Structure formats: structure tokens, C-alpha cells
Amino acid sequence: RLLPLYALQERFSRLSGTEVGVLGLAFKPNTDDVRDAPAVEIIHLLSGEGAHVRAFDPVAGPRAMEEVGDTVELAKSPLEAADGADAVLITTEWNEFRELDWSAILERMAGNLLIDGRNMHDPARMSQIGFEYYAMGRPQRSSQVGMPASVAAGT
Fold first, then answer.
1. Quick one: which of 39, 56, 78, 106 has the fewest CB in 10 Å?
2. Are strands 87-90 and 19-23 parallel, antiparallel or unpaired?
3. pTM of the complete model
4. Which ranges of the chain would DSSP assign to H, the alpha helix?
């Protein structure tokens, strides 16, 4: 549940001042229900570490703001969530996140770290686009250089 957070902590020496885009706030796609959503907990922890978080969810954004308050900036689009981000986290498996123009997302980012907490994308494809791509729960691959095997494998 918190593996994306651990991956960020491993990648950056400090999270203070880090810009993080979060894609998905609901606990599952096609709902605005944020009860027990991993994104809410991750956002609270990132904010507590001093990271600036900008998040987008196609449905749950307004509802999530009740849970996260001023600890997150609500973006109007995935591109806006990625704007200037050092890293982007995928925390909800919305179909719309499968179909994004990931090259455009990368162009908007300050960094190139993409942490896929839902294993939505092909690691080779994302690496080819230019991402440093980590898929939670998958074995470490060449596209996951630098990610501790324990974090990439979800252990």
C-alpha cells in the first residue's frame, strides 16, 4: 500500500521540496469513494515529509479534498498534475490513465520518475518513452535501475 512512498524515499535523499504528481485519488476506478484509498495516506505522508503534491482524479477529486485538505493541490488534468513534477505516482487504475499521452506527461515533468502502483503499463514501453519506470510488485528490470529489488518486488 505504501510501496510508492518507499520508492520515492529510496530515490530521493529527502522528500522536502520534491514535486510529486499523483494520478488517482479513489480507492478504485469509476467511483468517488476515497475511504481507505492508498493515495490519501500517501499524500498525507508526502506532505508531512515536505513534498509538494499535485493530484488528479477524474471523479474523486472534490471528495478527496475533504480528506486531504490543504495538503494537496487539486489538478484539473493529468498534464497539470505532472507539470513540474520530479515524480508521478499512479495510485488508481483508471482506464483514462492507460490512454494518456505519456510523452506529453514526460515533457511537462521536471524529472522522469514514474511509479506505477497499479502495474498498468509495460515497463519496456515506458522506459523507451524516457521514464525511469517502477512498477510495484514486479521483479526489477533494466528499466528499474536504481530501485532496490525489495521495493520493486513489493517485499
1. 106
2. parallel
3. 0.86
4. 3-11, 38-48, 61-68, 78-82, 95-98, 102-108, 123-129, 149-153
